[in-house]
Amino acid sequence: MEKERTLKEITPRGEDFSQWYLDVVLKTEMADYGPVKGCMIIRPYGFAVWEAIQADLDRRIKETGHVNAYFPLFIPKSFLEKEKEHVEGFSPECAWVTIGGGEELEEPLAIRPTSEAMICSMYAKWVRSWRDLPVLINQWANIVRWEKVTRPFLRTTEFLWQEGHTLHGTEEEAEEETMRMLGVYRSFYEEMLAVPVVPGRKSESEKFAGALRTYSVEALMGDGKALQGATSHNLGQHFATAYGIEYLDRNQERAKPWSTSWGASTRMIGGLIMTHGDDAGLVLPPKVAPYQVVIVPIPPRKGDWSESVLPKAREALAMLRAAGIRAHLDDRDTQQPGFKYSDWEMRGVPLRLELGPKDIEKDQCVLVRRDTREKAFVPLAGAPARIRELLDQVQKDLLERARKFVADNTTRVSSWDEFRQIMAGRRGFLIAGWCGDAECEARIKQETKATVRVIPLEGGVRPGTCIRCGQPSPQEVYFAQAY
Amino acid sequence: MEKERTLKEITPRGEDFSQWYLDVVLKTEMADYGPVKGCMIIRPYGFAVWEAIQADLDRRIKETGHVNAYFPLFIPKSFLEKEKEHVEGFSPECAWVTIGGGEELEEPLAIRPTSEAMICSMYAKWVRSWRDLPVLINQWANIVRWEKVTRPFLRTTEFLWQEGHTLHGTEEEAEEETMRMLGVYRSFYEEMLAVPVVPGRKSESEKFAGALRTYSVEALMGDGKALQGATSHNLGQHFATAYGIEYLDRNQERAKPWSTSWGASTRMIGGLIMTHGDDAGLVLPPKVAPYQVVIVPIPPRKGDWSESVLPKAREALAMLRAAGIRAHLDDRDTQQPGFKYSDWEMRGVPLRLELGPKDIEKDQCVLVRRDTREKAFVPLAGAPARIRELLDQVQKDLLERARKFVADNTTRVSSWDEFRQIMAGRRGFLIAGWCGDAECEARIKQETKATVRVIPLEGGVRPGTCIRCGQPSPQEVYFAQAY
After folding, report:
1. pLDDT tens digits along A119-152
2. In CATH, which of 3.10.20.30, 3.40.50.720, 3.40.50.800, 3.40.50.300 is domain A291-390?
3. A175, A297, B270, B432: which could join A313 in a potential S-S bond, CB 3.0 to 4.6 Å?
4. Which is the CATH superfamily of the domain at A410-481?
5. Is the CB of residue B159 less than 8 Å from the CB of residue B151?
6. Taking CB atoms and an 8 Å limit, are B128 and A32 in contact across chains?
7. CB distance B94–A100 less than 8 Å?
8. Which of A135, A79, A83, A121 is closest to A257 using CA atoms?
């Protein structure tokens, strides 16, 4: 039953990116498949990344004035049906509870595919006066969407996310909120995940079911495909109308609020894996790495490592932890240092601290960066300060490297041939004119698998002609194949 | 549509405790009813209490060596059925998903009523060697049990909890873990919630479906009824056998691990409300209070409060927040101070800081305790230090008051008449002998609604005779009517 634990092989990225991704996710024990199709288990190593993400994103959400709450998992069928576009968009993906407590239910209950229906129903009850506005509530919850093709973190039947749901007195305030939260996602992606993103507006065909306007941040993965990183929706008065949210304004007149919703999910973990990972496995940005440093003690050729090496390694561990660094000591006596190096490289720990008998003699240690493999000999007493510097540097360098990758793989194209050629080859973001017509968009997708990712918010408007049909294009957009 | 916001009335505790509880929960906006029977919404004020609970309990769970993970919501019917007692206990309470993605499912999926079935199935896949033990995993999740009679926080169809699931190489280690986590719950209840609890073992009829032994901490509510606060189960080898968890031990022989599970839920919030609340509403222990201090500025008789009072109140707010105190400034200009006093008393904020023109002249403020209504005049500069002292004092006093209540309402009884009389009147904990027979226990329940809450771990064994049947009783137990 027990096998010698050898280093697990990971398919090279260049050979099969998709298999590389699965190998990394499964072999690093970030996640595992569960018994229900499309439902994954987030294992402790992967969940620790989620906890780091959650703590920081939650802080940003609170700093922008929001509070957390918790709404029910079950949404009655009739509630979901109140907003027409919304139910059309989500109903096919719903899981339905039809039996409870041994009896058939009078009305089936959807497992929430998103919570607008539930939350807006409650807002209709709670909001009475202009003094109740704005309502700024967020929740962290599990979501179920019955997906046909699933992949751990990227697209799973059940996933974890946060969903903000707000109400505002004016359209302008709702739009401001929508953009504010898009900005929060953007900074979060760049500052925490070291993943550069392009913020922009979605085309009509890609917007959220029931929204007035959907915005998203789009990232570019290592295989040249785009990943929608998070979305922020201006819902207009659609949901207020559908769910009957009304209040008395300052003039004591009935008024209808504007609403927004915005969310980011465990998919972010997939995005960071596909942005930074390499053939050796994960590369985790220090800010979300469960362990920022792993200490690998090197036993003496002769004699017992517990005499000098292990006690010194434990001292180093205590010193790093006291300095607020997430450090781990690999004191397994069943594995050689070489195995441990590869194992922790695979798991993407940003720094390795090697400590052997010779280092101890010189009162030093060896620090090795996961991303560049650079080595440095550092006096032990100065290790915490040096490690903090290095962690900051790694965080910055990962973002820079990813930015360079995006720049290198973003092409402004002016001919349909070039568009098709690139999409059939290395892919990436293509910036091009688009007429704005949904049928033309569908044709582009059919021919190249590329969709309009966003109508960018930055970079100027640049009118021109549509890359596919040649009709006037009010502004350039980002195309890509997408996850 | 808009009404003058008057102070909402709360039914006196003595008149109708159950209605008092509902009034408090709903009117303080801790929770609200949702559209699905038995499903509540945890509103921001209530959720902030949950966040404080979660942060501290999570820290304690991690300090005892556990890590978090996330397992799927859906449990296939066949998985639930593997442990016979377990499925018998939980199946009648299950909600079943039978339709997904527009199609009838081949196998119905239970919404997890607890996760032993799912987690043990995964452990069977992950655990291979004695080196993999112990496995110490916890998850924070939503749970669904189709309850007939529900009450916000105390018993709801969906609730939030944490559930730890561990594997150990020996029975002794499993029992140690079970007791360790019972101890964690006990300290958590006493130190954070200021709720004293009685730790003990459950009788056979009250134990977890599938467990070898169940332990719990039991609290006594303001109406003399007991609340099971958290449970910790030694599952023996039942689940390892049912789910096929096996490993190679140090001698390279196949072995079966022992498992435990333990959980505490949003029910804790109900427990703290019913322990500390009074006729004016909530009384929140400072450690879990969303706001520890509310600042109520008092406008001058003549003139504008924004000239002097409001700026000074904002200064005080900044000063308290900088000192790490959760402070809130009630700067509503639509309400009088008297209304605000009652409003925040109802919401259970531990301290009120009043600040008026006369106070500002004297460079002082008034601090009023929620629990005792004691007033103190304090120099403004010294307010943060004084507030910290007072918060500590309130926290201690609440626990002491609750301990006294438990002591006053715990009676050692030696006659069945006395037992019945007390249970028909003021109730509370009754300590009495019990023969250990399940039928005798059922008879006691039928006649008095009281059940064996725990066979206590402390206080000595004291053999005697059964309070009901007179047969020998190996040790005294705690009886009470229970939520």
Report:
1. 999 999 999 999 999 999 999 999 999 988 999 9
2. 3.40.50.800
3. A297
4. C-terminal domain of ProRS (3.30.110.30)
5. no
6. no
7. yes
8. A135
